[in-house]
From TrEMBL:
Keywords: Pyruvate. One of its GO terms (molecular function) is oxidoreductase activity. The keyword Ligase does not apply. InterPro entries: FAD/NAD-bd_sf, FAD/NAD-binding_dom. Residues 2-96 form the FAD/NAD(P)-binding domain. The keyword RNA-binding does not apply. Pfam families: Pyr_redox_2. Transmembrane segments: none annotated. This is Pyruvate/2-oxoglutarate dehydrogenase complex dihydrolipoamide dehydrogenase (E3) component.
């Protein structure tokens, strides 16, 4: 499976699917996902944890998509080709209410 995004929702999804013994590729445009929300130190630690459990493709983005009856293929901006039977888009959330102030 390929997960597009590496924020909190994507990270939790990757963790749950990894625990269920699925192969996971986590793809993020950011070199250190979560830096804005978590700060440099925590975001780097989370990224390091991702790297030990799933295939990570940080600072990358898809540039081409290939579809077949059973698979989805992505070509990344560095030429890497990923194939999966499922792609999950977990590319962020928006607050339902404005923050106070």
């Amino acid at each position: 499976m390929i997960i597009l995004g590496a924020g909190l929702v994507a990270a939790e999804t990757a963790s749950l699917l990894h625990q269920a013994r699925h192969g996971i590729a986590l793809l993020s445009r950011s070199n250190t996902p979560g830096r804005t929300a978590l700060g440099d130190l925590v975001a780097q630690r989370v990224a390091d944890l991702h790297r030990t459990h799933v295939s990570t493709y940080f600072a990358r983005q898809p540039v081409a998509v290939r579809l077949s009856d059973a698979h989805i293929g992505l070509t990344l901006d560095d030429g890497t080709r990923l194939d999966a039977d499922l792609v999950i888009a977990a590319n962020g959330t928006a607050p339902s209410h404005c923050s106070p102030g």
